[in-house]
Structure formats: C-alpha cells, structure tokens
Amino acid sequence: MSKSVAKGVETRKFGEKRGAIVHAAGALINEVGVQATTLADVARAIGLNATSVTYYFPRKEQLVVAVYDETLTVMERMASAALAEKDPAARLRRYIADHVALRKRIRAGERGRVAALSEIRTLDQEVQEPLLAHYRRVVDIVRRFFGEAGSDGERALFSARAHILLEALMWWPVWSLQYSVLDFKRIEARLFDVLAHGLPAMKGRFDPQALIGNWRTGDDGDVNQNEAFLRAATVMINERGYRGASVNRIAESLNVTKGSFYHHHQAKDDLVLACFQKSYDRMSSVQMGGMGIGTDYWTRLSSVLAELVDMQFFDATPLLRTTALQALDADHKINVVTRSNRLARRFAGMLIDGISDGSVRPIDPLVAGQVIMSTVNSAYEARLWAARFERPEQAIGTYLSALSDGMLAPSR
Questions:
Q1: Which residues have C-beta within 8 Å of that of residue 260, sequence separation ≥ 6?
Q2: CB burial class (10 A; 0-12, 13-18, 19+) of residue 145?
Q3: Which of 84, 112, 168, 262 could form a disulfide with 26, with the two C-beta atoms 3.0–4.6 Å apart?
C-alpha cells in the first residue's frame, strides 16, 4: 500500500471515528442535556475508553461545539435545498418534508444526527458566538423562502415567519413522539396546511379584545421574596440558559444572599420546575380569560394569543422558554411536557369550537395547538425584533400574522 493510500485510509478512519463520537454525544445531549453528558458516557456509548475520546476532543466543550456545529450544518443544508425550490409554497413544503423525513430516520435508529440547540447560550462566549452566527445564517436562508424583502416592513414580516417556522420544526420532535411514524405523512401535510394558510376562516382576520386578569407583572414592592426569585430566574434562564443561570447570579440580581435562595428551594432544578409551573399557570389563566369573553372562538383565541405574545415581548416577567427543558432529568421533563401538552390541547379545543361556529377553517386542531405553543414560546426570542416597531400592537399583529394570514400570504 502506497503512503498516499495509507494516509487516505487513516484519514477516513479518523473521520469515521470522530463522526461516531459526535453522533453519540448528540444523542446523549438530547437525552440528558449538556451538563449531564460526560466524555466517559460518550465513550461507553460507542464501546471506547475515555482516553480514546480525549484524543479527538480533549475537552467536553470542544465536543459539544462539534455536535452543535454539525446540527447547524444539517439545518443549513436542508434550508439551502428548500430555497432552491421554485416558489415559497414549494420551499415551505420541502423544508417541512425534509424535517419529517429526518425524524423518521432517527425514529428508525439513526441517532445523533441532530441535537436540540437549546443550550448553546450556556457555552462560553468565545465558542457561543460562532455557533450563533451559524444559526443566523440558517435564519437568513429561511427568511428568503418568502421572497426578497422590498422594504423594512417586509423584511420584518419575513423574519417573523422564519423565526416561527424554525421554532415550530424544533418543537416538532418533542410532540411528534405522540404519533406513530405511520402517521408522519399525514402530520406533514397538516403542518404545512397550518403554517401555509393560517387558522381563521376569513384569512387575515385579527381583531383581539383586551382581556382582564392578574397574570401581568405588578410592582416589585407587591411581591414576596419567592416571587422575586421566580421572576429573576425566569429572565436569567431565558437569556443565559440553565447552566448560565447560576444560583449566585440569581441571588446577586436581587441583592440577596445565596442562603435566601435555599430557604425557598432545595436545588436549582426545583426552581426551574417552579418557574415552569408559574409560567404555565399564567398561560392557563390567559386561556381561561379568553374563553370567558362572549364572541366567536377565533376572536377568543386571537385575544389569548395577542395577550401571551404581548407578555413575551414587553412584560417584565416573560414566560419561561422551553430551552430550560433540556437540562431537566427524565421524570421532570416528562411532567413539564405533559403540562405543555394539556395547554396545547386547550388551544386545540378552542380551535374545534371555532371550526364548529365557522370562525376557524377546517384544520387539524392537535397539530395547530402545538404550532401555537411553539409560536408563543418562541416570541421571547423576538423581543429585540418587536422593540423596533413604533407601537406594540404593530409588533404583535405582524408576528401573529403567521397564524392569522398564513406564511404564504402576500405582505400588506
């Protein structure tokens, strides 16, 4: 064997083993989160010793970066393939189909191909920024699905659509576990229908009513210390991720001692669960507030959506992002997802009633309910985008036009 051939074989074997390590790490990160994933666990997953893994990745953070970079590369490749299609409808259809096909392969045993991106913000700044720049490239490609923006308003609209589409497809792996792969083709079609054409029977109808309730953030002087901890933790976890929101940072933001935290919560996981509980309680209260107004069900639903997105954009205490979900242990994660599914089913119930009264067009309410959940959840990440609008209602209406008009509607 010549030296060049031997070198090629050696390079191929190196790449294959490195790829196997990255894929195994991706599967573990999806299962237990970044913090609980160790190099030793990755080594055991593919029958190696820990020393073999450190030959390729001396530090765990290097491996985590490789996992995220590969995931973003897969996302960019799928986005570029969809962008090559002839028109927005074909691009949207192709992008959804490719994501569903990927999940079908993963369900069949292809593990580690993609990892949840929820913990990128927990990484150190110097490695986080290149990954976020890579994600922004993906967003830019997806934004171009809808055409070349001819104005600032059109660019803002296309950016909102891209953001909502990406979040819907990143949330799809969580709720798709409720379905057999035999149902995937139908779910793919229903997901396209909801995203492409929106929800109301009269396309573009969006006239939310004001809701009355006590889910908004009050004055700081009106809350007890535990409530203050929940507020501070929610904001910090949304911005820094689970690992970045340390107990010390939360306590320092409130100018209290670390001991004050442990007076109310035994561990940080308890605080995260309390934040989820508080957020879901608030969301449930808004849903029930919307159910109580005397009008058709699309108006009720759109009023709820407007209120929730307003909270995510402008309230001092937003709802907790599901990015925190990844770091929880399996039992706690199941409990949080179960509560989320109950809220999604309440949205589905409102959609069913709207179909009955003629205000909502015939769509799959279970699929649409999950799209609503991801749309509301992801609105927090669009705070800077929303702040550019002159009036809050403009930001809310533009963002939610993905559901009221559909993503294929011409810009107005």
A1: 225, 229, 251, 254
A2: buried
A3: 112
**23 contacts: CB under 8 Å, gap ≥ 6:** 111, 112, 113
**Per-residue pLDDT tens over the stretch 380-393:** 989 999 999 999 99
Distance (Å, whole) CA 383 – CA 310: 10
How does DSSP classify residue 405?
T
Q: What is the pLDDT of residue 402?
A: 97
Greater pLDDT, 271 or 107? 107
Least Cα distance to 254 among 270, 271, 278, 276 occurs for 271
Closest to 99 in 3D by CA, of 79, 80, 83: 79
Please check whether residue 309 is in contact with residue 400, taking contact to mean a CB–CB distance below 8 angstroms: yes
Domains of the chain: 9-148 (1.10.357.10), 220-366+382-404 (1.10.357.10)
Predicted confidence (pLDDT) per residue in 139-184, tens digit: 999 999 999 999 999 999 999 999 999 999 998 888 898 999 999 9
Please give the C-alpha separations between residue 279 and each of 225, 308, 336, 376, in angstroms, as whole numbers. 17, 11, 11, 12
Cβ atoms of 280 and 335 within 8 Å: the answer is: no
Residue 139's pLDDT is 96
Confidence (pLDDT) at 4: 52
Residues 261 and 274: their CA atoms lie apart, in Å, by 13
Give bridge partners of residue 200 from the DSSP assignment: 360
Residues 6+ apart with CB under 8 A from 227: none
